[in-house]
């Protein structure tokens, strides 16, 4: 399997604190059936600024260590980029990394809202030949209030990545319920672990696919698996016609 969203690099954000912990995470990923991961440190948050050069250097160093230790995992570079009004300017200034040099740009919204500039960012990405991959929309309160807002973003070319722990219930039953809803409405294109460590947020990608197979269907789980491979190979994603639904009140997931 391919995991497009991980925090496996040590010392750059809230992922592992040492190389040894990164290597243990790599072993866990392999045992979970993963062969390739994208290292996507947080970028442009209030706590973290991770320059692309630092990430590329860390990825090269980790891949070298993986070879030395005989761990059959390959790491590719990326960032989890917080949505800000300067995101497109940052692209022009060559400070952003796509996923492994592909057309896919992993972006993150604040937990409680979809920023006003997000639609324009998605449009600008399409003009630039980029595809914005919006991370874990199932954990966003505005999406919980009105999942159809993802339809509007999809019209501008955005695709959506579900986090393993969401569908497994780690973030609570309401987030899990929304995760199932987004899958059943064909609004999710990709599944990733968003792994940060060995215990609190580990690699549980295979378990997530098993849950999707059980609740949504094996065909949909395989569709998401294939799309991760397509990201790694810089190919256009498979897409399915989404199902529209009635909007719900914002913050309903927190009642």
From TrEMBL:
Catalysed reaction per UniProt? Answer: O-phospho-L-tyrosyl-[protein] + H2O = L-tyrosyl-[protein] + phosphate
Transcription as a keyword of this entry, yes or no, is no
Q: What class of enzyme is it?
A: hydrolase
Mind telling me which Gene3D superfamilies this protein's record contains? Metal-dependent hydrolases (3.20.20.140)
The record's GO molecular-function terms, alphabetically, read:
manganese ion binding; protein tyrosine phosphatase activity
Specify one Pfam family: CpsB_CapC
Q: Which family, according to the similarity comment?
A: Belongs to the metallo-dependent hydrolases superfamily. CpsB/CapC family.
The entry's protein name is Tyrosine-protein phosphatase
Species of origin reads: Paenibacillus chitinolyticus
């Amino acid at each position: 399997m391919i995991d497009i969203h991980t925090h496996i690099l040590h010392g750059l954000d809230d992922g592992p604190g040492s190389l040894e912990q990164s290597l243990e995470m790599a072993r866990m990923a392999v045992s979970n059936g993963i062969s390739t991961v994208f290292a996507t440190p947080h970028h442009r948050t209030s706590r973290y600024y991770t320059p692309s050069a630092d990430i590329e250097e860390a990825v090269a160093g980790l891949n070298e260590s993986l070879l030395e230790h005989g761990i059959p995992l390959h790491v590719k570079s990326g960032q989890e980029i917080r949505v800000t009004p300067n995101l497109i300017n940052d692209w022009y200034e060559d400070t952003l990394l796509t996923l492994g040099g592909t057309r896919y740009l992993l972006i993150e919204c604040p937990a409680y809202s979809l920023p006003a500039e997000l639609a324009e960012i998605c449009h600008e990405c399409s003009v630039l030949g980029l595809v914005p991959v919006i991370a874990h929309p199932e954990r966003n309160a505005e999406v919980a209030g009105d999942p159809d807002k993802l339809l509007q973003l999809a019209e501008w070319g955005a695709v959506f990545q579900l986090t393993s722990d969401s569908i497994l219930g780690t973030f609570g039953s309401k987030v899990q319920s929304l995760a199932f809803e987004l899958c059943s409405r064909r609004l999710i294109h990709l599944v990733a672990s968003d792994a940060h460590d060995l215990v609190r947020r580990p690699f549980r990608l295979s378990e997530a696919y098993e849950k999707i197979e059980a609740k949504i269907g094996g065909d949909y789980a395989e569709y998401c698996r294939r799309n991760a491979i397509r990201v790694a190979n810089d190919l256009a994603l498979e897409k399915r016609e989404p199902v529209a639904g009635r909007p719900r009140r914002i913050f309903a997931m927190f009642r």
